[in-house]
Write a structure and sequence with these properties.
This protein has 466 residues and is of the alpha+beta class. It folds into 2 domains: 302 residues, no CATH class; 123 residues. 58% of the residues lie in helices and 9% in strands. Strands 1-2-4-3 form a 4-stranded mixed beta sheet. A hairpin with a 2-residue loop joins strand 3 and strand 4. Helix 7 crosses helix 15 and helix 8 packs parallel to helix 10. The model has no long low-confidence stretch (mean pLDDT 94).
Length: 466
Amino acid sequence: MTGAGKKITVLFVIALIFIFFRLYDIQNPFSTNGIDEGIHLLQAKMVSSGYNLYSELGGDQAPLAILTFSLFKGNVMAARYLSFSLFLVASFSSFLISARIKNRKAGVLTVLILALDFTLLRESRLASLDLFSASLLSISALFFILYIDNKKIMNVALASLFLSMSCLSKMIAAPFALIITLIFLYRTLKERNFLHISAYIVFFILPFIPLLLVFTPQELMEGMLFRQMNRGFDIFSKLSFLLFIGPGFIYLLLIRKWDLNNKKIAFLVTWLLSLLVFLMIQGRTLQHHFVYVVFPAAILTSIVLCDMEKSLKGKALLASFVAFNAVLSSSLILTAPHDLAYDTADEIEGIVPDDYMVISGNPLVNVLAGREAPPNLTNLAYYHYPPTEPSDVIYWLKKGDVGAVVLYWHLADMDEVRQYLNESGNYTMYKVIEGRGQILFYGIKPKFSEDRYVIYVKKDLLKPGP
């Protein structure tokens, strides 16, 4: 083996180590995107019990990922391992893209960057809709690159299929899908290649067919689009970009003049810029959204690094990126706090019978305890449409079907709910569980939350038996 070959092998081994190291203590991720993971898994669990994601649960995301999680009945660990598996497949797809466009070294560098990227580290330890969709997009991109090379109809069909599935997992992929579809249609119409156009259209529509057997077109439009358009605009959230580019400073190499006459390079640049621009102009930009741009950014960066093969600047930048993110990844994984949702769920499971519902500010508690929530209270996030009001919660408390309430996150800020629980005579404060929580990101400021779960239990359930 040559000296260059040995270096590539060493880099590949480092990449593999950090890819699989993220599985360590995956039951306690250092960040769960607030309560997003819990929302989607609770909805998946209740979909598996027969609820309609949109008309009954008020879902506000595309359905494919949540329906897939429902196959596991919302099981937390199964869903997280699925996310990790998709990350693996997407990383391999990205390797093949880089190797095909440049060389094998570029492929290895791509995998190394993906293995150490902070945003991907965070998302690949969660049941993440963003990673689910972005991974399918990476697979689609591989088939687009193959199609550019050989014009085989099977490649364009598979590219279209995975592109459609990506959009049906989360609609952030839609801007890229729209642009690339228009470019494809323009070029193939110009070539009068109607067979390939037909294959593209048919395979793009294909994933919609089973969904239309479950949902009406109105439900899909409402859930996938309209409920996402009422989340307001937060200019401060745009600073989340700094949390992406800070640890990922190696992506600054992308600021250069690219040869857009090269169709494959033009495709990658379109993939990157269409999504990056959309992320920055949408109402609220959160750090985990940048998982969409990591894959094209890593591929293009690896190409630049190969062009700088003899440059000390390139070697120094790569070495500092690896060193910094290796330390960051290790420290975050090894110091991740125990998730108090497990302890809270154990308390709920031990005292609330199966036939009672539980209202929790962190829906992950419901999933872990195996207790459903009132169908319109699966999403208690601060920003969703229609917003959850205290009156929505109190309505269910008055019905008497709720065995416990866990004040946390947005629910803990609803003073009217707390007041009702204290004054109604039907509920009593049972226990407070508190300690260090996950890392949250306020603009550019990372901070460990102080988790505090306040458990109220229906008094009837606390009465001693005969």
